[in-house]
Structure formats: C-alpha cells, structure tokens
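name: query_chain
kind: protein
chains: 1
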Amino acid sequence: MMSNMLKTLAAALFGLLLLPSAYSQTAVPTLIYPIQGAVFLPQTVSFEWNITTNAVAYHLQVSDTLSFSTTTYDNTSILTASQIVPALPNNTDLYWRVR
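structure:
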C-alpha cells in the first residue's frame, strides 16, 4: 500500500487525483418511479430514486435510445431524489437513468 507521500507524488507526476476509498465510490441510485416497463405514462412525469450517500448532486437523463446517445431530458444539477420532467413525447419508448 502506498504511503500518503507517495500518493501525493504520484498525483503530482501523473495528474491523478487519488481520493480516500470512502469518497472514491458513490453508490449508484436505485430507480424507484417510474418502474421498469411502465406504459401509458402522462407527458409530465415525476422521476424518483433513492438518496445515495456522498452524493452532491444527481444527473438525470431521459432518452429514446438505450445507449443514451441522444437525450430528451438531461439535467446534471438536481439536488433532491426526484425531478418533475414536463413535455415528454407521446407514444415513444423512453429510457431513464440517474447518476
């Protein structure tokens, strides 16, 4: 295991940010609503997920592609464990994720 001095030196030499293990991994939020496979949702939906330890903000994405190569909704500064998203397209398969 590297000493703190070696970690600092490695970070300076290689431009790496080495964080204590308690902060290096934040749990992935568990999606609550809408549930997987939900159909016939209204155009305005309140997306909900569980609160995760060490999260500063949440990133919600809604997409019509499973790869999220394009997004219908993309917000990186959500401070609570839910977000109301208005004006979603009708008759479209949508995917969502929170990070």
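note: The first strand starts at residue 31 and ends at 33.
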